[in-house]
Amino acid sequence: MDINLIKTQVDSDFREIASLEELEALRLKYLGRKGVVAQLTSSIPQLPPQERGQFGREVNQLKNKILSLFAEQEGLIAGLGREGKITPEEFALPGAVKELGHLHPLTQVTDEICAVFEAMGFSVVEGPEIESEFNNFTGLNIPLEHPSRDAFDTFYLRMPGSAQSRRPGKAGKLLLRSHTSPAQIRVMQSRRPPLAVVVPGRVYRPDAVDASHSFMFHQIEGFMVGRQIRFSDLKGALEVFAKAVFGKEIKMRFRPHFFPFTEPSAEADISCIICRGQGRAGSGQGKNCPVCHGKRWLEILGCGMIHPNVFKQVGYDPKKYAGFAFGMGVERIAMLKYGISDIRLFFQNDLRFLKQF
Ligand code: DAH
């Protein structure tokens, strides 16, 4: 093979290309396993020893030249195209996108949870992050002396031009909502039952940041109000949710609890997704499960039947209507679902973490 002849051939071949298919054909012709460069390389041992070095260098030069011609042509075809030579197919080629981003894992989990409830007939509503004291506490039957109202547990806003944070008017101070429950008040004040709503969103609490606390996190509130809503409806809806998000084998249990805005109230647990409710690590003997610490259950949310006082605050007749409500932390659900041990990972925006989802 005459290497100079080949060089001329390369030049004319690369002048003619009009599409990616043709470029691909050239790739096979020159760089393929049985291509021209491979043949030249394998012919080296047959040369007299004194010619091998020089020939080898020329083959290398040729190969580099071909590689740079490829890069150039690829860029032209994928980029702006060559003037006068663009084929209709090239116009339809997608842009040269190196890497697409995707939704944040918390957004993915929020969307997934909302979709489960939407499939059960719930609609998705959002509320503002700046709330009134009334919607965040009073309307929800949270008494004035409740510790969550303390400035250590809630961010109050200082209104411009006033020394204290008190804003005149019935609604009282403004604050950053400390939970998504105030959406219950907003929705019930503006609509009549029957209602089935989920409310995802950010909430704020003045907590010191550590592996399990953040001053901002996400919750999903849900509630249903109608004439004959029972606790069993709550259990059914939450069981559908837990199985959809954590898997069909999951078991659920409800423990009595207290919340001012529900009566009765409960906390809902799922059987530990790591040890499958066995409480033990690995094969079943030995150490406690590292996720549930041997407790077999993982708390996932708070819930209950909406308190009659809440209905009174929004002008619903508690004799006529009943409803259930629940609230969950999105970070917690995501951490359990994916085995994430530190809440700060969600907010550091380290691509090595984010790319895993
Ligand atoms: N708002 C509660 C919290 O932030 C969560 C919650 C508990 C919401 C029980 C509810 C509920 O709707 O019924 O801790």
Characteristic terms for this protein:
single chain; 357 residues; alpha+beta; seven-stranded mixed β-sheet; two-stranded antiparallel sheet; 13 helices; 9 strands; 38% helix; binds 3,4-dihydroxyphenylalanine
Distance between the termini: 52 Å
* Number of alpha- plus pi-helical segments: 13
What is the structural class? alpha+beta
Ligands bound to this protein structure: 3,4-dihydroxyphenylalanine
Order of helices and strands: HHHHHHEEHEHEEHEEEHEHHH
Helical fraction equals 25-40%
Shape: elongated
Q: Whole-number average pLDDT?
A: 91
Low-confidence stretches: none
What is Rg? 32 Å
Strand order of the largest sheet: 1-4-5-9-8-7-6
Content of β-strand: 15-25%
Q: How many strands? A: 9
Largest sheet: 7 strands, mixed
What does this structure look like?
By secondary structure, this protein is α+β, with helices and mostly antiparallel strands. The chain is built from 13 helices and nine strands. The strands form two sheets. Strands 1-4-5-9-8-7-6 form a seven-stranded mixed beta sheet, sandwiched between helices. Strands 2-3 form a two-stranded antiparallel sheet. Helix 2 packs antiparallel against helix 4. The chain is elongated, with a radius of gyration of 32 Å. Residues 179, 181, 221, 259, 262, 302-304, 325-327 line the site of 3,4-dihydroxyphenylalanine.
